[in-house]
Amino acid sequence: MRIDLALGAGVLTAALLVCGGSAIAATVEPGGSSDVGIDVDIARVTTPGALIMTVAPGRATLQEDGSTDTVRRFTGSLPQVTVTDTRNAAQLATSSGWYVLGSASAFTGAGGATIGADHLGWSPKLVTGDADTVSIGGDVGTALDESTGDEAATDRGLVDKELLALGDPQSLPDGGVTSTATADLTLKVESTVPAGAYSSVITLSLFE
Amino acid sequence: MIHLRGAPVFVDGRAVARRTHPMRTLLWAVIAAAALGATMLTLAQPAQAVVRAAASDAATPVPGASGPVSWSVEPASEDGRPDGRSWMELALDAGQSVEAYMRVTNRGSRPATFALSAADGYFTDTGRFSMLPAGQASVDAGTWITVADSVAIEPGASAVVPFVVAVPAQATPGDHLAGVAAGVYSEHDSVAVESRIGFRVMTRVTGELVPAVASSVSADYTPSWNPFLPGRLTVVVTTTNSGNTRLAAQQTVAAAGPFGVTPRSAPAQTLPELAPGDVRQTTTVLDDVWPTFATTAVVETSATGAGDTDETAGATARATVATPPWSQLAVLVAGAALVALALRDRRRRRERWERRLEQARDEGRRAVQVGAALAVAVVLSLGIPLAAAPPAEASTIVDVEITPRPSVSPSAADTPVPDHDPDATLAATGTTVPSMLAAGGIAVVSIGAAVWVVGARRARRRS
């Protein structure tokens, strides 16, 4: 009886100690890194610049790749989109930064068959450019994927405007910046979708 | 186009091409018809003063081998110079119309034709402005803008394209969002890509401006398994711009237990800009909320109308969520169980101790009885020889020699000598005491033996 009691008390104490310890460990902030700031003041060019979009030529086809018994998978890639921002400080004063958003229309096939745009996902990638001045949008999965997002579901597809790339006017270097982005496209459909030719339009919009 | 082949894969490439062919012809026929329709529409609108823009194909495919297309679009003034604005903000009366200008510059190395469009604008969930894609019909300010279908521009040249913003007479006061854009189509086998650059055209129709905001809250609590750590409260707020102006809104999320104990709050956050009618969902996570059986999340939203309006609007929403302190209760229960066990153990121990004490007392009592009996027996066994011995000692002869003293006075010589025979006295006692001792001893021994026998029997019976 006494051994049982001692064991119980010991286990409870140990559990409380572990809990308390981990609570303290969780509360204690890890040591912050000490960044040494070096301030350099370079005046921006004052000649008017522009926000330019360049679309690469080329053809891309969605090819069947990695289908299973239940899901057919087609992959391809978006043509490269280059955004060059050469605007000066005065032009950027009212700007909140540029961004390229993408959305897709539903795939329509012969005989009125459609595949919803939520079946098309993408994974944006930075091809060239400085990761400090441009941010790449997050992956968007298809409706047949598992959602991996913590706050927002990622299995929403390219239905609404999804971010491909985002430029920060505050970190625009002198002389402008050029960034090129693309995205891997993935279409997933149920294997019961009727065979046929389907087409969709992806709209990429550069706004600020 | 993607070719989905049926389960029996006998369709070869040629067959697919043959199947595709009528489709593509049909597509071009549709595009041509649409272009024709668009051209007729353009011709039917005399108000549209398109000078440098030519109506041509609605969609301008970028041929695969023609190289990249590079261009820029910005708001311009009437003389064609960019005015440095990022977008256009107009204040118009209902029924009024103005002409505005966009400057499209071909920054590539070959001539290109850009499709021009205007559509309803909106803010995405993250507050980024965009306009409806070509396939979706506008219903609001996008329909107020009339612009040419396309413009062909030589390399290095700019075109200043006018567009008309005509506010209908029945337009409601407030902000109405639209965008204009110039873009190109990249024709692909499977997916066509329309790339466009645009800017906002934000029209404020004069009249009574009423900034208003509404909000609703739902909260979800995730307790920590660790009783020393607080849990996490996830507060999802749905904010609606119920007024007629664009809103810059600020939101604070706070949570507290019953009677305001353990208050927690997140730093005030600025919401992305909200257009009239926009609904925005924001998620705030409060990481250090202790379980206090019930926690109430309070969300306060204060909004300011964008632009010149100084009017503000506010909304407060609250939601209560159950926050049972399971892990803390578990510790309490475990501790209480241990204390109860310890108390019960102590009580049992004391009982056993008392039982043992009683037993020991019994044994001790019995041992004392036995010991007393033994002692009596020993005394008696010693006493009998003692009682037998006295005669020997009683016969000890004490010799007393009385010599007459040299008397000074005759009276001294007359001192009477006691006529007491010590031998007789000793002999008398020597015979009487041992006999009494022996009788008493035998009685005590027999009583002790009887008691011992009875006690032993009782003990045997008890055990």
Describe the structure.
The complex is a heterodimer of chains A (208) and B (463). Chain A is an alpha+beta fold. Chain A has one domain. Chain A has two helices and twelve strands, in the order H-E-E-E-E-H-E-E-E-E-E-E-E-E. In chain A, strands 1, 2, 3, 4, 8 and 11 form a six-stranded antiparallel beta sheet that branches. In chain A, strand 2 (63-64) and strand 3 (71-77) form a beta hairpin. The model of chain A is unreliable at 31-35 and 41-46 (pLDDT under 50). Chain B is α+β, with helices and mostly antiparallel strands. Chain B folds into four domains: 13-44; 46-205, Immunoglobulin-like (Sandwich), CATH 2.60.40; 213-324, Immunoglobulins (Immunoglobulin-like, Sandwich), CATH 2.60.40; 342-396 and 421-462. Chain B has five helices and 19 strands. In chain B, the strands form four sheets. In chain B, strands 3, 5, 6, 8, 10 and 11 form a six-stranded mixed beta sheet that branches. In chain B, strands 14, 15, 16, 18 and 19 form a five-stranded antiparallel beta sheet that branches. A four-stranded antiparallel beta sheet of chain B has the order 2-4-9-7, with no helix packed on it. The longest helix of chain B has 63 residues, at 326-388. Chain B is rod-shaped and about 180 Å long. Chain B starts with a strand and ends with a helix. The chains are: A alpha+beta (208), B alpha+beta (463). Chains A and B meet through helix 1, strand 1, strand 3, strand 5 and strand 11 of A and strand 1, helix 1, strand 2, strand 6 and strand 10 of B. Strand 1 (51-55) of chain A pairs antiparallel with strand 2 of chain B, so a sheet runs across the interface.
What's the CATH architecture name of the largest domain in chain B? Sandwich
The succession of helices and strands of chain A, N to C, reads HEEEEHEEEEEEEE
From the spread of the alpha carbons, the general shape of chain B counts as rod-shaped
**Structural class by secondary-structure content of chain A:** alpha+beta
Q: Averaging pLDDT over every residue of chain B, what do you get? A: 77
Tell me, what is the CATH class of the largest domain in chain B? Mainly Beta
Give the CATH H-level superfamily of the largest domain in chain B: Immunoglobulins
Q: Return Rg of chain A in Å.
A: 26 Å
CATH domain fold name of the largest domain in chain B: Immunoglobulin-like
